[in-house]
């Protein structure tokens, strides 16, 4: 008999499920609030925050700081540049090397946003003690393996907010 077949294990499974729901819902709500009130996604806001702390970061360094794929970071930076929130500068002879800085508009936006600018999940994780993070990582790895998740690339993409409900999707 598997451990998960006991009544106590079922109760713990339900408790963990509820905690995941709380986490996902809170992240989605925070993301929606940021996008509605700031005009950028929560991931874009986190990128701006990282650049405010470390002006002159390279795209690869920003991607690493945010635990996202380089191409995901590049696409996000395209959107921030179009909004006039960041500047890309080529400062070396290697034209592929680009450094990133906030524009005045980017700094002003960052000064007006809610705390924590890097997002509530990231902020909470950054504040946990190392021993708790190690335990959490090991246990979540077991869960990922049990779920037989195939899309490992999803780990390198930001969490997106809930899609906005269109008027036609509401029940009458």
Brief description of this entry?
InterPro entries: HTH_MarR-typ, Tscrpt_reg_MarR-type_CS, WH-like_DNA-bd_sf, WH_DNA-bd_sf. Helix content is 58%, strand content 6%.
Structure commentary:
- Residues 13-148 form the HTH marR-type domain.
- Keywords: DNA-binding, Transcription, Transcription regulation.
- This is HTH marR-type domain-containing protein.
- The protein is 58% helix and 6% strand.
- With 172 residues, it is mainly α.
- The protein has a single domain, classed as Arc Repressor Mutant, subunit A.
- Helix 3 crosses helix 4.
- The mean pLDDT is 86.
**Number of DSSP helical runs:** 7
In total, how many beta strands? 3
CATH homology-level superfamily:
Winged helix-like DNA-binding domain superfamily/Winged helix DNA-binding domain
Order of helices and strands: HHEHHEEHHH
Helix content: 55-70%
Overall residue-averaged pLDDT value: 86
How are the strands of the biggest sheet laid out side by side?
Answer: 1-3-2
Q: Tell me the name of the CATH class.
A: Mainly Alpha
Unreliable stretches (pLDDT < 50, length at least 5) are: none
The domain tally reads: 1
Q: Say what the CATH topology is.
A: Arc Repressor Mutant, subunit A
Cα-to-Cα separation, first versus last residue: 47 Å
Primary descriptors:
Arc Repressor Mutant, subunit A; HTH_MarR-typ; Tscrpt_reg_MarR-type_CS; WH_DNA-bd_sf; single chain; transcription regulation; about 170 residues; HTH marR-type domain-containing protein; mainly alpha; elongated; 3-stranded antiparallel sheet
């Amino acid at each position: 008999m598997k451990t998960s077949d006991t009544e106590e294990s079922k109760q713990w499974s339900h408790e963990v499920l509820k905690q995941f729901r709380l986490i996902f819902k809170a992240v989605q709500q925070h993301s929606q609030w940021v996008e509605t009130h700031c005009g950028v996604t929560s991931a874009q806001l986190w990128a701006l925050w990282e650049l405010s702390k470390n002006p002159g970061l390279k795209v690869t360094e920003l991607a690493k700081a945010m635990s996202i794929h380089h191409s995901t970071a590049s696409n996000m930076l395209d959107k921030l540049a179009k909004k006039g929130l960041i500047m890309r500068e080529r400062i070396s002879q290697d034209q592929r090397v680009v450094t990133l800085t906030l524009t005045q508009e980017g700094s002003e936006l960052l000064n007006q946003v809610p705390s924590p600018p890097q997002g509530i999940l990231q902020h909470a994780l950054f504040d946990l003690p190392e021993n708790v993070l190690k335990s959490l990582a090991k246990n979540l790895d077991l869960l990922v393996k049990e779920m037989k998740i195939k899309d490992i690339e999803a780990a390198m993409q930001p969490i997106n907010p809930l899609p906005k409900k269109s008027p036609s999707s509401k029940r009458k």
